[in-house]
Amino acid sequence: MKYGLRIRLVLIGSLIVWLLPAALGAVSLAELIEADIDAGLISKEEGIIYQALAATNPGYLPEHYQLITGAPDKSATILVRDAWVVLAENLDLAAKYRGVLGTRPLMQTQYQSPAGQFWLHYDTSGTHAVPAADTNVNQVPDYIERAAQLADSVYNYQVNVLGYLPPPSDGTLGGGQDQYDIYFQLMPYYGYTSPELAGPAPWDDYSSHIVVSCNFEGFPPNDDPEGQQIGALKVAIAHEFFHAVQFAYNVHADSYFMEMSSVWMEEMAFPEVNDNYQYLHHFFDDPQEGLQHDGQHRYASFIWPKYLEENFGIDIMRAMWCECRYEIAFSSMAYVLDSIGTAFPVEYLRFLDWNYFTGSRGHLGYYQDAVDYPDVSIMRTHTIVPDFNYYSMQPPEPLGSNYIVVENLGGLKGIFTFELDGNPSASWGVAYIVDYGADNYFDTISTAFSNGEGKAYVPYFEDTQRIILIPGVTCNYGQVYNFYYDIYIRPPGDADGNHLINIADITYIIGFVFGGGPASHPFAAMDANCDHMVNISDVVVLIQYIFGGGPFPCQ
Fold it and tell me: What is the mean pLDDT of residues 134-160?
């Protein structure tokens, strides 16, 4: 059945799916602001300003917003960057908020890092005071000394070792000459990076400064051997300094790519911390949410740069950021993958394949730390084949996917077929995995889908425990895309693909074997005796079955 006809069957179910989230859970500040925008109480631009103020100067928020509290979040950089853009474009809002948004904090004292790359600005008393411990009694808190060492280490790793551009100079802002400034304040974020002045390059590079938490009290646990506070400090500096590096390439870069890259950089700089693992369930619990999805999902999406790094080396991300100087992130990723002899749809589908082999399904040959990642969520499990006319319960977004498992395949022979009928506005592909048990797998992908329609075939599946099918949207545009699918067995010997065994199949195979005719797709469709070869014996099997009362092919 065509997609356009099938869609009418699920309108009510889809409406329920969309309405449920509004009825569940407490309201966050972001949700309250969004509701006020929708109600016309504030403009979208004001909403962006209020989101940034919540991170930088919450005392300037309207009172009813100040009452909303929540758990610490990773980074407020995107909020601050977007508010900075609003202030540059809206003179009225700039006149009202320029003095309290994007300006550098005023701190009590400062300390230069050992390598001379950074000035660290901090308080020793009051609301924003850093921990007071000073074991070497040099009048500089241990917290600041360790932060300075970490900042120098991060700069060396990202700029000198990995070869990224350094942040553009801010001149003498902050008190130092061409040194980068880090400020320490009490806030419900690990940190943020605030853009400031246009740099010298012919693209949109900007100088910046960083603000991080002054104590990381009440933040999520991590695995750092130096303790949770230092672990959080490590990843905050690595994350936010990489945002400063990103501003050297394009201050207007796509937010999802900025965040997934910065969380990935935490993993590269400080693999012992594992703070980023706290976000992974946002990705693996909801694979239908695409790589461009916002919220904490974009932090969890560091798994995509991790896939690229483990397959193509650590330099691939720098190559993509170089392209981001002039292109959107999706185009940059596609260009770089094309340049090394592959393609974005191919690698995205292989990425979906890798994401099955995590957690309890962790397997050699995939992520190095796969067993430490969550299991990916399975949308539906089928135990009866054939099974027809199903649709996605969780329609995937652009660059999103679903996981479908088919079990109980014993006694069936032929060619396992997964037929997808998706929204033709999207680009589709399918990754599929054949699980033979005992950690024995076969996996592949199919990207040849036209107008949203395509088939994935698994011949010789008789000894399998299950087949895992992963339809994915390989384009970066649109909202959500539903699809329908059928699961069935194509008879062995059905060479012409009409789901029947008759004389036309005999003619087709004879044409291939003796006349140079086309092969079936898949090739195994011509293998009527299941000996993994195509020759005259397959013709004989079909003749005996059709005309002589012989057994069904492959029996």
Answer: 98
